[in-house]
Design brief:
457 residues, mainly alpha, Growth Hormone, Chain: A, 75% helix, MFS_trans_sf
């Protein structure tokens, strides 16, 4: 009599080794080098390097993101309907080269002799292509948070590694960009940006290749052959996902204002060189890194939901206090450092909660739409980035900012300072006190100190 086959044990936490966790974090380092460039320097690049009017820049940033309204959901649905083990990795690998090419094209200044409409059209088209390609590869990368493991403890480590990588990428780009541009261009920032971006794409390509090569999919989603309408309905029934995505939208909108206006604030309000903006961004990145180190023990003690809610409120309160104090480099710098610490504590908790919510809370039909959930969450964040960039450009234009000028009026300085500190403070406080107040999700880090077997996939 034949013995029945032994049951296949679920993937254990030990199968996700340190090499894979580090490789996953390296991917977000690469993505955040590009994100940091777009967040902190793209508007400045368009206004003070390409000399586009602020209103034109606002329109370009808003129009380019429209393509993601279609791209990201399609990518998410495609991932949900793929066979297990081959859901996100094919997109991550296949989209890497087009993404790198479009990064360079976006930051190559066009000849000043061209008509401004032609230069704006070419720049906007290149940026739109970058938004689409970024949406494809970054959505696939984000889904891997749910596909590598279903163990909550491993997910928290993956989220922490991801945030550490993101912070290091942001630190590098904030401190290196303008000095490297000036060095490579010998004072010609147009040529310097073009040469700098060639170096950037080589580094970013290597970093994103690591998770594409070394990470593995172990968890299958439940989308199957369900119609897109069913998947969307199941996702929208997920209250935890809705609240987390809403909070991320508001905080990303606030961060877009802060980082986009910081270079202007340092130069025109604090009256320091624009290189100082890079040092402030670097200091904030170091504080974010310190916050990531605190996040895991805090989540294990109080739960990820509590840590995220209180950390978001604290971040908004710190910015509000910094805005109320005199506009001095030391006071503003101290406020930004504390803000970075709060953000660092929140980020791993947020991504752990998001992965857990999509895995454990489906709609009435029981579907769990991981691909579509990550895609729409990513789309909301990127839409917040471009809406924020467009609104910031509108605020600067309404305040009377003159592109390329050495000095700005008192009205323009007031608008810059409010865009840098007051607007993001209000948005962070709104996210923490209103959107996240009713967040109800099982604590996903309860298993960190548990000896129970990890849940089956």
């Amino acid at each position: 009599m034949m013995r029945p086959p032994a049951p296949v044990p679920p993937p254990s936490a030990l199968r996700v080794g340190l090499k894979e966790i580090v490789a996953f974090g390296a991917g977000d380092a690469g993505f955040n080098i590009i994100w940091g460039l777009m967040l902190s320097y793209l508007a400045y690049f368009y206004t003070d390097i390409c000399f586009f009017p602020a209103r034109m820049v606002g329109f370009m940033l808003l129009a380019a993101r429209a393509a993601s309204l279609v791209t990201d959901p399609v990518v998410g649905l495609w991932i949900d309907r793929r066979p297990a083990g081959h859901q996100a990795l094919p997109l991550l690998r296949g989209g890497l080269v087009p993404f790198m090419v479009l990064v360079v094209l976006t930051f190559v200044p066009l000849p000043r002799g061209w008509p401004i409409v032609a230069r704006g059209l070419c720049a906007g088209t290149a940026y739109m292509g970058l938004c689409v390609s970024y949406g494809v590869v970054n959505t696939a990368y984000g889904v891997m948070t749910s596909l590598i493991s279903s163990d909550p403890a491993i997910r928290l480590r993956l989220a922490t590694s991801r945030m550490v990588g993101a912070t290091l990428g942001g630190l590098a780009v904030s401190m290196v960009t303008l000095p490297a541009v000036d060095f490579l261009g010998h004072g010609n920032r147009q040529a310097g940006f073009a040469l700098f971006m060639v170096v950037v794409v080589c580094v970013v390509g290597a970093l994103v290749w690591l998770p594409a090569r070394l990470c593995h999919e172990r968890v299958a989603t439940d989308g199957g052959d369900a119609a897109p309408r069913q998947l969307v309905a199941s996702l929208l029934a997920n209250r935890a996902w809705r609240r987390l995505t809403g909070a991320m939208l508001l905080t990303m909108l606030g961060s877009t204002f802060l980082f986009g206006a910081l270079v202007y604030d340092v130069r025109y309000v604090l009256h320091a060189g624009d290189h100082m903006a890079g040092w402030l961004l670097g200091m904030m990145s170091l504080m974010v890194l310190a916050g990531c180190g605190l996040s895991l023990p805090l989540c294990a003690r109080w739960g990820a939901g509590v840590v995220m809610r209180h950390g978001t409120v604290a971040a908004g309160a710190v910015l509000l206090l910094a805005y109320g104090l005199p506009a001095r480099l030391d006071l503003t710098g101290a406020g930004l450092g504390l803000f970075g610490l709060c953000v660092g504590v929140c980020n791993p908790a947020c991504f752990t909660l998001l992965a857990h919510a999509m895995r454990h809370e489906g709609g009435a039909d029981g579907l769990r739409t991981v691909g579509l959930g990550w895609a729409l969450n990513s789309m909301a964040s990127k839409m917040a980035f471009d809406i924020g960039g467009s609104l910031l450009a509108g605020v600067l234009a309404a305040a009377g900012l003159v592109s390329g000028a050495g000095h700005q009026t008192a009205q323009a300085q007031a608008g810059i300072h409010a865009g840098c500190l007051l607007v993001p403070a209000v948005l962070y406080l709104l996210a923490g006190t209103v959107v996240l107040r009713g967040l109800a999700v099982q604590n996903p880090v309860a298993a960190v100190n548990s000896t129970a077997s990890p849940p089956p996939t």
